[in-house]
Specification:
With 536 residues, this protein is an alpha+beta fold. It has helices at 36-47, 77-84, 89-95, 131-142, 156-162, 185-198, 244-249, 313-324, 368-385, 390-416, 424-431, 437-447, 453-458, 467-476, 498-509, 515-521, and strands at 29-33, 56-60, 99-101, 103-107, 117-121, 180-182, 202-204, 208-213, 219-224, 228-231, 234-237, 254-256, 265-272, 281-285, 289-295, 299-306, 334-337, 341-343, 347-348, 351-353, 359-360. A hairpin with a 3-residue loop joins strand 14 and strand 15. Helix 9 (368-385) packs antiparallel against helix 10. The chain starts with 28 loop residues before the first strand and ends in a 15-residue tail after the last helix.
Length: 536
């Protein structure tokens, strides 16, 4: 799959256990502090490395500290995680009430006529047959030609999501979808714990009372409840927003994204599942933020992500309940605070922060687990090279920081390009000038009707997201000249027969099953072959 087919495609995400390394590992004992999805994913990645049998990996999980447990969506790279571990969908999905995800719908973010909603699709091999037409129409419309350039018409993932179809084709139709998942985060953490124990990871259910430092500033050991001391060669901080090791013990500075992203809180509320099971996440803009709707096999997960600078938690809960039609107080809501930003160094001394302790870019694009995978795989790659020195740390930190800020920029663009005027919140987002230099360059290029593809490919701007994603976002939000400024297209601009695309996608969608029907059969079904290649 080429680099711009999906975010974060690089060698660090590849399967590591296939490497044959005979040298001794530079580390022997690694302690992961904090369980949950991040901790157990990290432990499994270490255990699956080429050094797995020679590493002693211990996860310390405090019985006094709960997990966030509401992040219930993923990017397609969760699929690669399970494939690397040789864990089939038929095993883990039923255990986690999981469903398939074709992408994300954004509803009511824009008020531009015809662009009130759009779908951000995950890539497909079928996109080879429609991507050129989409890009050409986008640029024609940027040049004021009145042609259809809404992304929803051009990609199979949107049609599958609209029809509640799963992205798993029949065997006779060889066009895979690079799909993600929805899942119960608590059940996923429990499943990963079980798998980690099966693969030799140690589990210590104790609270960390103190982090003991060496004279040179490295972490020496952990004092656990009961006055037991546990030392190691290397420590991984998966303690979430508490940031017990990287933040509190090592005092690594934290860079907030508050000037770029206003949201800092969420309130979550489950609702019953009825009717078809969607194969998409729905993100609906409300007065002071947005609401996610995520389908599991047994319920819908819902949450309102908002800014406390514009709305109180009580107001947010009332607005969420009203939106969902769940005014019954017996259905309890869960309130959460978010620390949006990143540490300056994810890898500081002999400690690596993974998960929320490393950084968090709000959940709009469900990238949290992607960064867990990425950081864990990058660290394993450095470990297998035997290079854990200062240069390796600097490269690691720079790479992670660039990708976190690239993800931030992509998410900021949703808010910056909104056209809602109903509240101060949305007006402030549209007027926000605290944009990174790369994002300013990208938007200026688009608004001057020039292609952004060269800048994306060269990494000048838009890092972390591919061509498909950026064009879907900017076109989907309707960032085009005003309708009254449009003109009839020239014959060259009107060269694409969109009826042929409609026919292609309609007939292709018939080869993908209904999501509910497929999930009912999944325990009897083996995992489909992996996606091999895209044009874009």
């Amino acid at each position: 799959m080429p680099d711009d087919a999906a975010p974060f495609n690089d060698p660090a995400t590849a399967h590591h256990a296939s490497a044959r390394i005979v040298a001794e590992p530079p580390l022997r004992r690694i302690v992961v502090v904090g369980g949950g999805t991040a901790g157990w994913m990290t432990a499994l990645t270490l255990a699956n490395s080429a050094y797995g049998a020679k590493l002693q990996v211990t996860v310390i999980e405090s019985p006094q500290v709960g997990t966030i447990g509401v992040g219930e969506g993923s990017t397609p790279y969760l699929r690669r995680f399970f494939e690397d571990l040789a864990i089939e969908e038929a095993e883990w999905m039923p255990a986690c009430n999981a469903t398939y995800k074709n992408g994300i719908s954004f509803d009511k973010w824009s008020t531009r006529p015809g662009f009130e909603s759009y779908f951000h699709p995950f890539a497909s091999m079928l996109d080879n047959l429609t991507m050129t037409q989409f890009i050409n129409n986008v640029h024609a419309r940027l040049n004021r030609a009145d042609v259809d350039a809404h992304p929803d018409r051009f990609f199979i993932a949107n049609r599958l999501a609209r029809e509640c179809r799963a992205p798993k084709p029949v065997h006779s139709f060889p066009f895979d979808i690079w799909h993600g998942y929805h899942f119960d985060a608590s059940l996923l953490g429990t499943f990963l714990l079980k798998k980690a124990l099966e693969r030799g990871v140690r589990h210590v259910a104790r609270h960390v009372d103190e982090v003991i430092l060496k004279e040179n500033g490295d972490i020496d050991a952990l004092r656990l409840a009961g006055d037991e001391t546990l030392d190691a060669d290397f420590f991984i901080d998966c303690t979430g927003f508490a940031s017990v090791l990287i933040g509190k013990a090592l005092q690594t500075p934290f860079i907030p994204f508050a000037e770029n992203l206003f949201n800092n809180a969420a309130v979550a509320l489950p609702t019953p599942l009825d009717g078809p099971i969607m194969s998409q996440t729905i993100s609906t803009a409300l007065k002071y933020g947005w609401v996610w709707k995520i389908p599991l096999t047994n319920r819908h997960g819902n949450g309102y992500v908002y800014s406390t600078d514009f709305c109180s938690p009580e107001q947010a809960e009332i607005e969420l309940r009203t939106h969902l039609g769940v005014l019954d107080a017996d259905v309890s809501a869960r309130h959460l605070k978010m620390r949006v930003g990143r540490v300056t160094e994810s890898w500081n001394r002999n400690c690596l922060a993974i998960g929320l302790s490393q950084g968090f870019v709000e959940p709009l694009e469900a990238t949290t687990l992607l960064f867990v995978q990425r950081a864990a795989n990058m660290f394993v790659a450095a470990l297998e090279k035997g290079d854990l020195g200062e240069s390796a740390r600097a490269t690691f930190n720079q790479t992670i920081n660039v990708q976190l800020e690239g993800t931030r920029d992509y998410i900021v663009t949703h808010y910056k390009t909104n056209t809602r005027t109903d509240t101060d919140y949305w007006r402030a987002n549209a007027a926000n000038t605290h944009l990174s230099h790369p994002l300013k360059q990208l938007l200026a290029t688009w608004l001057s009707s020039r292609p952004i593809i060269p800048g994306l490919k060269k990494g000048v701007f838009g890092q972390g997201y591919p061509t498909l994603s950026w064009y879907s976002l900017l076109a989907g939000m309707g960032l085009f000249p005003e309708p009254q400024d449009m003109r009839p297209p020239t014959p060259e601009e009107a060269q694409h027969d969109l009826a042929q695309i409609d026919n292609l996608l309609q007939r292709s969608a018939m080869n993908y099953p209904d999501q509910r029907e497929l999930l009912q059969r999944i325990p009897l079904r083996s995992t489909e072959p992996s996606l091999q290649a895209y044009l874009w």
